[in-house]
């Protein structure tokens, strides 16, 4: 952390500084001294840590089932999954992706994990033959 002469704070938080991070800054004009207390919430983005391959080959009429996994460095941050885009018959709930590959073609889909502040997005493709 660095503070310039105009009072601008330059800081890149470390993983050990996630959640509420408290610090104090001592300010002086050479005569008077003041101490300013800061409490800053540091958010670490969520991470989709286990996901299908970028491109998955499935046979026609095959059922695909996969459970995505994630982690979040913040202790009390809620995570929310969503299927942002995909074939009409694709189903996604609580990290579990399922789909019956009934149409041959290339099908793209997008899964998002968010903590309401940051997101991790996975772009996948199914090749149905």
Written account of the structure:
There is one protein chain. By secondary structure, the chain is mainly β. The chain has strands spanning 2-3, 9-10, 19-28, 33-42, 47-50, 55-58, 62-67, 69-71, 80-85, 91-93, 96-101, 105-114, 119-128. The strands form 5 sheets. The protein has a 4-stranded mixed β-sheet, with no helix packed on it.
Report the principal-axis shape: rod-shaped
- Structural class from helices and strands? mainly beta
Order of helices and strands, N to C? Answer: EEEEEEEEEEEEE
Q: Unreliable segments (pLDDT under 50, ≥5 consecutive)?
A: none
Cα radius of gyration in angstroms: 23 Å
Please give the largest β-sheet.
Answer: 4 strands, mixed
Trace the largest sheet across and list its strands.
6-13-12-9
The amount of helix comes to under 10%
Strand content: over 45%
- What's the tally of helices? 0
- Strand runs, count: 13
| Overall pLDDT | 94
Q: What is the rounded distance between the termini?
A: 55 Å
Would you spell out the secondary-structure blueprint of this structure?
Blueprint: E1 2-3, E2 9-10, E3 19-28, E4 33-42, E5 47-50, E6 55-58, E7 62-67, E8 69-71, E9 80-85, E10 91-93, E11 96-101, E12 105-114, E13 119-128
Parallel strand pairs: 6-13
Antiparallel strand pairs: 1-2, 3-4, 5-8, 7-11, 9-12, 10-11, 12-13
């Amino acid at each position: 952390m660095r503070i310039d002469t105009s009072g601008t704070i330059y800081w890149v938080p470390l993983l050990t500084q996630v959640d509420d991070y408290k610090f104090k800054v001592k300010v002086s004009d050479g005569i008077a001294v003041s101490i300013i207390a800061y409490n800053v919430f540091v958010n670490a983005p969520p991470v989709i840590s286990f996901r299908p391959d970028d491109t998955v080959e499935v046979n026609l009429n095959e059922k695909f089932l996969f459970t995505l996994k994630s982690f979040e460095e913040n202790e009390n941050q809620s995570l929310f999954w969503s299927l942002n885009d995909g074939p009409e018959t694709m189903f996604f709930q609580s990290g579990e992706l399922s789909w019956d590959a009934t149409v041959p073609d290339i099908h793209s889909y997008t899964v998002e994990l968010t903590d309401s502040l940051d997101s991790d997005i996975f772009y996948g493709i199914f090749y149905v033959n």
